[in-house]
Amino acid sequence: MLTRQDCEARDRADPLAPLREQFVLPEGVIYLDGNSLGVLPRATPARIREVVECEWGQDLIRSWNTAGWIHLPHRVGAKIARLVGAEAGELTAADSTSVNLYKVLVAASRLAQADAPERRVILSERSNFPTDLYIAQSVAQELGWALELVEADEIEARLGPDVAVLMLTHVNYRTGRMHDMAVLTRRAHEAGALAIWDLAHSAGAVPVDLKGCDADFAIGCGYKYLNGGPGAPAFVWVHPRHADRFWQPLAGWMGHASPFEFTPDYKPAAGIARYLCGTPPILSMAALECGVDTVLAAEPLGGMAALREKSLALTQLFMDLVEERCAGHGLALVSPREDALRGSQVCLTREEGGYAIVQALIARGVIGDFRAGDARMPDILRFGFTPLYCRHVDVWDAVEHLRAVLESGEWRRPEFNQRHAVT
Question: Residues bearing N6-(pyridoxal phosphate)lysine (predicted)?
């Protein structure tokens, strides 16, 4: 039977253990919510002070040139590209995930209209992240198309002659289930459709190979596994074969071929640069670069492959310990047990008290989160494992706290059943 000492020994033998020192981790906190908001990199406060006090405070507007502010979206984008199987110059950091999805979904729809006007369906997974579905619904309404939602195991069968775009999130936000990007992209192409991938729960957490999978478009989040800070800029990638074919719909001045010529007519920049829109948020972009650097620090230690190996070990350990030490308390596993199907999170359900149990854990310093269910899906207790800073002993201690919360019934206390605005 595994012990806490065994977990400590695993941590001592972990070649990635030094990467934890890159982060500010509050004393007494076990942080299992990096799939919602990554922790603060130690380098970020000093970098923000530098931007505020020196680049802005002293050099003022000159910093667009002297500090390279104007190139920051593409510089950060080139770093993110190394994590998702893209090339420098193909990916840029900009706007939010939702805004970037709108850009690429409209661009993909225009491509489909030009090549096969009879195709008028956007296909997605029923349990996809809501903002993705809202954006797709909006685009479908604008075009007079249909948004069709199916279960994960129905996607391939539904890809037919009327489907223009397949839009999926690589790792499901509720369950942690991971799609096979290469297979589904190939099936979409065989059916004549384009493939858009949301990497919000995979970039920086699992290996991604956009070019190798021959994806068409991708967007992703900067504040989860990339540790860019709350509301950090997102990113957008377009396969080079598509980048110059159409304008993206938010034709702003930063996406102009010559922004400072100030011409009254729009001429899109070449390639991914046209997917910029307005002035980049320099403070948050600088913070995002610090976050991305924490992930790139794993490259000499094996990079994303090494992070993935540790992620699988942590999530497997959590599942095993919950099964062993919390048996009889009504918890059920939602996330896949198969390594190839699981992202970097583990999700549990319980018929009663899911929200209160998470709140009781947070009061103990174990931070996960809760996602409400509906008529089709149960409530979710969600735990994310960021291999850059999560340890095996954190997993052990988190499960011990979970067991104590369940055995004591402390989750029934009134204060743990008061709903907050953010769950």
Answer: 224
Would 423 be classed as within a structural domain?
no
Please check whether residue 38 lies inside any domain of the structure. no
Q: Are residues 329 and 404 in the same domain?
A: yes
**Which of the listed residues 277, 296, 315 is the one where a domain comes to its end?**
296
Whether the CB-CB separation of 405 and 361 falls below 8 Å is answered with: yes
| 217 in a known ligand binding site | no
Sheet of 234-238, strand order = 91-94, 234-238, 217-220, 194-198, 163-169, 121-125, 146-150
Token pair 């899906």 is at which residue? 377
Closest CA relative to residue 167, chosen from 211, 125, 224, 228: 125
Cα atoms in the 13 Å half-sphere on the side-chain side of 375: 0
pTM equals: 0.96
Domains contained in the chain, number: 2
Q: What is the pLDDT of residues 147-197, one digit of tens each?
A: 999 999 999 999 999 999 999 999 999 999 999 999 999 999 999 999 999
Indicate which residues carry an active-site annotation. 129, 198, 223-224, 382
**Is position 201 annotated in a ligand binding site?**
yes
65: DSSP letter: H
- Rounded CA-CA distance 222/80 in Å is 9
The answer to whether 198 is a known ligand-binding residue is yes
CB 169 within 8 A of CB 181: no
342 and 288 in a single domain? The answer is no
Q: Assess contact for 343 and 200: CB atoms under 8 A.
A: no
The answer to the question of whether 423 is labelled as a binding residue is no
Q: Do 69 and 211 share a structural domain? A: yes
Q: Is 223 annotated as a binding residue?
A: yes
Which of 296, 316, 340 is at the close of a domain? 296
- What span, in angstroms and rounded, lies between the C-alpha atoms of 15 and 129? 34
E strand or H helix at 394: helix 392-408
What gap in Å lies between CA 364 and CA 231, rounded to an integer?
26
**What range does the domain containing 323 cover?**
4-31+303-417
- Residue burial 160-189, b: 16+ Cβ < 10 Å; e: rest: eebbbbbbbbbbbbbbbbbbebeebbebbb
